[in-house]
């Protein structure tokens, strides 16, 4: 689908992601990031046409947690604003649709998550079917391990290859000052077979923000806007028993609808918290060896839940802003074993 | 640039009750969605995307339940978005779905909101203590009662107005087969004799806790042309937010509510809401919010809203009926309540509201709010397609 209006990511900012942030509230964590993206564009809150955020009450441990973050935005005079209880990548999608209607020309999108106050492995079990599955508390690592084992059994990868994904990602992260895990990280012991600690993402806290702008406004705000050529997301069945865990048809369909296969991309920022998930996504997205995958280090280097997907789009856009990429793909996922996937295709103006 | 006109061609609700022990959450949402599809005479295959909303995940104890509900809502292989904007979420969800059609991303979208409050305790779900922040004081009533008092003091309204609203809405609910509370023996005296909960709010002036779901099928001009029943057309929609607490906040008549209404009226070409709008489905969880919102939405001057209520203007047979369905006071599955307002507004302009139909309703406002009177979402629907 060709969007009816040209919309671009014109600014991206993120926190330094870290294991704990006890000394900061969510608002305090978020504020510098919001100021960062506003400063980059020279805009004030009152200049923004639409604001949308992504977060989860279950991480915060309280209902309506996003209301406090809104206070941090400075919603006075009142603003046009919305919130998704999803990763911020979907907040960006909502903002993109709002800009498509022509009701706004600019949008501020942000997302944040603090995993440190609780056990994120346990918290994520509360996403599962509440009657039949959640009571068993199968945690996110165990579910990812099922997927990894299915891949190994299908001959699509093996443990050394997975270790290679981990090593490549964290080596790439050495050039990302925001990343939580960088450089040489031991693969470590099995956490849940066949996944070792090195195959799993760090647990951490962080926030990110993006500014979108339409048409000429984007060129005013950014020297080289990252135009959203297409963006789409798809969901799969929840029950793992009815899915082929070695494949991601929702990613493939979203990529197709976003136009990802029309021309090759040079960069792909994939939201793959587990090494084995990169294997699935590479296949679904038909990424060849020539594509620079997760130059930021990806979710294996920093995985602030609810913001990690938005960061992938932001990182892809930032590479276009910096002239390091001409056509990049940003991907976000949600749910157990890549249940829901979003794909954005971003391009810089021809040089 | 021009937007695609958006039409409501299917509406479905569950019968709202205190506890739907016969269905799971998936069963509950499926029921409303299937009814909306039946109304539109469409199948699951006709739906391009699903937009779902509900209030806090803590109410049912499921984190991001849309993941689990994807199968039940026929969303597998489709885009599915989950909106959460506190009490206004039902309205916001419908507006997000509207934008998918208006922005020509999709042709036909299913939007749905629900709450299955019987699976937990909403009052305590709203009352998780947090350091350095004002708790909601054991449920929403404790938060809102002081603002009702402020309204009474500011406007000089007699203390009987709240009970008139409750009496009206509960009688209206008797004409709505989907309403939760059907109090066949309701009298004004009973409302006035009910226990005081959060002075000045009495028991019968508060909303119930409901299980329920509501769904709508939204479509573009081509989809509307195929609709078997009259569509409702979206003429204007907006959301506005302001901070929870700050020194300049007017809790009686928040600026965000005024701005939101003004935006909707501008889009819809409404010059004088009192004259140009035929009826209102308004988010009134505590009875006194009817006169308060009448002022906030521009139907009455400041301090005058209670006079409309007292003189019977807002009765079902009045000049500006408010909450023909019985409103939130009679049915409150929190996350769905805002969308029920939007859906009931659409039912009215489609002429499909049954016993609680307002004769000749051509333009009707649906209104929702949430948080500490800080999130607002509204839409105005009409029987005719928008002019441009």
What does this structure look like?
Chain A is α/β, with parallel strands linked by helices and 351 residues long. In chain A, 33% of the residues lie in helices and 21% in strands. Chain A is built from eleven helices and twelve strands. In chain A, the strands form two sheets. In chain A, strands 3-2-4-7-1-8-12-11-9-10 form a ten-stranded mixed sheet. In chain A, strands 5-6 form a two-stranded antiparallel ribbon. In chain A, α4 packs across α11 and α7 crosses α10. Chain A is globular. The model of chain A has no long low-confidence stretch (mean pLDDT 96). By secondary structure, chain B is an alpha/beta fold. Chain B is 34% helix and 18% strand. Chain B contains 14 helices and eleven strands. Chain B has helices at 25-40, 66-69, 89-102, 122-125, 140-155, 161-173, 188-193, 221-225, 255-268, 273-276, 289-296, 305-310, 327-330, 334-350, and strands spanning 7-13, 49-53, 80-83, 108-116, 196-198, 201-202, 211-219, 232-241, 279-281, 363-370, 375-382. In chain B, α2 links the parallel β2 and β3 (80-83). The longest helix of chain B has 17 residues, at 334-350. Chain B starts with 6 loop residues before the first strand and ends in a 6-residue tail after the last strand. In chain B, 64% of the residues are buried. The mean pLDDT of chain B is 95. The chains are: A alpha/beta (351), B alpha/beta (388). The interface between A and B is large, with 63 and 68 residues. Chain B: Residues 243-372 form the Thiolase C-terminal domain. Chain B: It comes from Streptomyces sp. R21. Chain B: This is Thiolase domain-containing protein. Chain B: One of its GO terms (molecular function) is acyltransferase activity, transferring groups other than amino-acyl groups. Chain B: Pfam families: Thiolase_C_1 (PF22691). Chain A: It comes from Streptomyces sp. R21.
């Amino acid at each position: 689908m060709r969007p009816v209006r040209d919309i671009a990511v014109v600014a991206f900012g993120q926190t330094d992601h870290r294991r704990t942030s006890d000394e900061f509230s969510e608002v305090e964590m978020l504020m510098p990031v919001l100021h960062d993206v506003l400063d980059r564009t020279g805009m004030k809150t009152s200049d923004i046409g639409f604001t949308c955020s992504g977060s989860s009450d279950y991480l915060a441990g309280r209902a309506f947690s996003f209301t406090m973050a809104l206070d941090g935005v400075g919603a006075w005079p009142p603003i046009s604003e919305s919130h998704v209880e999803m990763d911020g990548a979907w907040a960006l999608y909502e903002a993109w649709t709002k800009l498509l209607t022509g009701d706004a020309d600019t949008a501020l999108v942000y997302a944040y998550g603090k995993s440190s106050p609780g056990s994120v492995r346990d918290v994520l079990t509360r996403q599962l079917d509440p009657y039949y599955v959640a009571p068993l508390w199968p945690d996110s690592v165990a579910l990812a391990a099922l997927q990894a084992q299915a891949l190994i059994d299908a001959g699509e990868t093996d443990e050394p290859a997975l270790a290679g994904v981990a090593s490549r990602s964290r080596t790439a992260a050495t050039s990302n000052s925001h990343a939580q895990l960088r450089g040489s990280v031991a693969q470590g012991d099995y956490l849940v077979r066949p996944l070792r600690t090195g195959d799993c993402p760090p647990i951490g806290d962080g926030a990110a923000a993006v500014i979108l702008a339409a048409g000429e406004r984007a060129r005013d705000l950014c020297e080289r806007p990252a135009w959203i050529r297409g963006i789409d997301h798809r969901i799969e069945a929840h029950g793992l028993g009815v899915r082929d865990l070695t494949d991601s048809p929702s990613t493939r369909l979203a990529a197709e609808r976003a136009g990802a296969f029309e021309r090759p991309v040079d960069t792909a920022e994939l939201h793959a918290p587990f090494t084995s998930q990169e294997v699935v996504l590479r296949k679904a997205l038909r990424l060849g060896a020539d594509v620079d995958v997760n130059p930021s280090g990806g979710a294996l280097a920093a995985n602030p839940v609810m913001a990690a997907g938005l960061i992938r789009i932001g990182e892809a856009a930032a590479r276009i802003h910096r002239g390091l990429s001409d056509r990049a793909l940003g991907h976000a996922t949600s749910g157990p074993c890549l249940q829901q996937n979003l794909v954005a295709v971003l391009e810089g103006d021809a040089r | 640039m021009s937007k695609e006109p958006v039409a409501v061609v299917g509406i479905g609700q569950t019968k709202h009750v205190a506890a739907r022990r016969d269905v799971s959450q998936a069963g509950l949402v499926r029921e409303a969605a299937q009814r909306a599809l039946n109304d539109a005479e469409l199948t699951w295959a006709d739906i391009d995307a699903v937009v779902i909303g509900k209030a806090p995940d803590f109410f049912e104890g499921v984190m991001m339940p849309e993941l689990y509900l994807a199968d039940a809502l026929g969303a597998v292989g489709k885009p599915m978005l989950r909106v959460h904007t506190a009490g206004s979420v039902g309205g916001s969800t419908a507006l997000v779905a509207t934008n998918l059609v208006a922005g020509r991303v999709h042709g036909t979208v299913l939007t749905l909101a629900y709450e299955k409050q019987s699976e937990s305790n909403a009052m305590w779900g709203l009352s998780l203590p947090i350091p350095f922040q004002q708790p909601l004081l054991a449920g929403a009533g404790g938060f809102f009662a002081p603002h009702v008092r402020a309204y009474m003091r500011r406007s000089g309204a007699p203390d009987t107005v709240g009970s008139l609203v409750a009496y009206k809405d509960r009688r209206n609910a008797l004409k709505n087969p989907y309403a939760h509370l059907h109090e066949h023996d309701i009298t004004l005296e009973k409302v006035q004799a009910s226990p005081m909960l959060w002075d000045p709010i009495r028991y019968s002036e508060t909303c119930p806790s409901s299980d329920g779901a509501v769904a709508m099928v939204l479509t573009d001009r081509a989809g509307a042309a195929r609709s078997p029943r009259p569509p409702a057309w979206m003429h204007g929609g907006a959301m506005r937010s302001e901070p929870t607490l700050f020194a300049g906040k007017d809790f009686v008549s928040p600026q965000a509510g005024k701005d939101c209404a003004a935006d909707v009226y501008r889009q819809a070409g409404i010059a004088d809401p009192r004259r140009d709008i035929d009826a209102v489905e308004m988010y009134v969880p505590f009875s006194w919010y009817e006169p308060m919102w009448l002022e906030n939405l521009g139907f009455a001057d400041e301090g005058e809203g209670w006079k409309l209520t007292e003189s019977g203007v807002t009765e079902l047979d009045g000049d500006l009926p408010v909450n023909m369905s019985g409103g939130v006071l009679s049915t409150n599955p929190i996350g769905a309540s805002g969308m029920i307002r939007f859906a009931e507004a659409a039912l009215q302009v489609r002429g499909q509201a049954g016993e609680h139909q307002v004769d000749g309703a051509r333009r009707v406002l649906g209104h929702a709010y949430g948080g500490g009177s800080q999130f607002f979402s509204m839409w105005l629907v009409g029987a005719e397609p928008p002019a441009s």
